[in-house]
Write a structure and sequence with these properties.
Elements: E1 2-4, E2 11-13, H1 14-27, H2 43-46, H3 53-70, E3 74-83, E4 89-97, E5 104-112
């Protein structure tokens, strides 16, 4: 699938397009997209919650639920929540591409959850 880079306006395809789409799904709060109020995930609502095992689990669960619903090009194998050196939350998503003739084995995308 070909799309447009949200930063540059240039055309993007394949893995960069998939990474951008996943990032958009996970960082869009449910109810914030006009004409598509059910689009997005609950992840943004969890970002400022106390950082404990329950919040980590809820964040990973919210990510999987949203991606299963909104990103048909992948089949999720695993999700890992982590904090980078600057204290910013991120998810590593390991998934198989299941779309089109270029099906790919599991690959991992790292998605920052806050800019």
């Amino acid at each position: 699938m070909t799309g447009m880079n949200s930063s540059t306006g240039r055309a993007i395809a394949d893995r960069p397009h998939l990474a951008q789409s996943i990032g958009d799904i996970l960082t869009t709060p449910i109810g914030s997209r006009v004409m598509r109020r059910d689009y997005g995930s609950e992840v943004p609502d969890l970002i400022d919650q106390p950082l404990n095992p329950a919040t980590r689990l809820r964040t990973m669960s919210a990510a999987v639920s949203a991606l299963v619903r909104w990103e048909p090009r992948i089949r999720i194998a695993s999700v890992r929540f982590w904090i980078d050196a600057d204290g910013k939350p991120a998810l590593d998503i390991e998934a198989d591409r299941v779309d089109g003739p270029r099906r790919e084995a599991a690959g991992t995308l790292s998605v920052p959850l806050r800019s």
